[in-house]
Amino acid sequence: MRQGTEIDGVLLVDKASGMTSHDVVAITRRALNTRKIGHCGTLDPLATGLLILTIGRGTKIQDLLMSEDKEYIGTMRLGELTDSQDSDGQVVETRPVPGLSREELEAAFAKFHGDFYQMPPMVSAIKKDGVPLYKLARQGKTVEREPRFVHVYAHEIQDVRLPEVDFRVVCSKGFYVRTYAFDIGNELGCGAHLKALRRTKSGRFQVDGAVTIEELKNGTPDQLATRVMSLPAVSRLRGA
Q1: Residues 13 and 31 in one domain
Q2: Strand, coil or helix: what is 64?
Q3: Under 8 Å CB-to-CB from 55, ≥6 apart: which residues?
Q4: What is the CATH number of the domain that holds 80?
Q5: Is the same domain home to 78 and 177?
Q6: Which candidate, 68, 72, 90, places its Cα nearest to that of 81?
Q7: Is 94 a residue whose pLDDT tops 90?
Q8: pLDDT (0 to 100) of residue 126
Q9: What is the span of the domain harbouring residue 37?
Q10: How many distinct structural domains can be found in the chain?
């Protein structure tokens, strides 16, 4: 059996819903029989799609890969606010959804394009005095957070089925798509939460052709090792 210490590079995984990014790392660690694995950009349990794993010496470029822009497709549900800003949370308020026109929706989305500040949600991995905010949120605590400077490069409303809206967004690192849905809901006056999310791109990497969780669980180490991109291949893809 190939030893994991021989593997250096990047593995693109299509994360399934209902699992954490750490779960994916643990499954891959066992599948490849290696210990040195990191991931680039956490995906919430709700989310599916592209999770970039760095393996062996690939972990040295983890910060570089994490800094790149991301593309997501998602669905927001208007009229329902949750304590986590997504559908994994508890509904804390419901509001009527007016018969919004496409133009009204477009105007609300346009308010969150380009540069702006975004307030990180309480249910997040950001730390306050060394404690992740989500742990404080579980204790019913709300603490002051620092707004984050973010950028939306492109956005598109893909479908409207009120009270649900499908959208695509291309954004900078550190961007919370559930907060994006929450803020747009507030702009519309009826509130919203993120119902579904899928990451489709990160930098030059795409989810198309990524290894599925089933392939990770059922493939042999040698089979999976052939799916790992070498560091020179990663460098060529990034145009570095």
Answers
A1: yes
A2: helix
A3: 4, 7, 8, 9, 10, 11, 28, 32, 34, 36, 37, 228
A4: 3.30.2350.10
A5: yes
A6: 90
A7: yes
A8: 57
A9: 4-67+203-237
A10: 2
Confidence of residue 4 (pLDDT cuts 50, 70, 90): very low
The verdict on 88 and 151 lying in the same domain is yes
Residues marked as catalytic: 44
Same domain, yes or no: 54 and 118: no
Q: Where are the alpha helices (DSSP H) in the chain?
A: 21-32, 62-66, 102-110, 133-138, 177-188, 213-218, 221-225, 231-237
* Model confidence pLDDT, tens digit, residues 139-166: 565 656 689 999 999 999 999 999 999 9
Rounded Cα distance, 82 and 49, in Å: 23
**% of the chain surpassing 70 pLDDT:** 88
pLDDT at 5 over 60: no
* 198 in Cβ contact with 158 (< 8 Å): no
Q: Is the pLDDT of residue 2 over 70?
A: no
Contacts of 21 (CB under 8 A, 6+ apart): 15, 39, 42, 43, 51
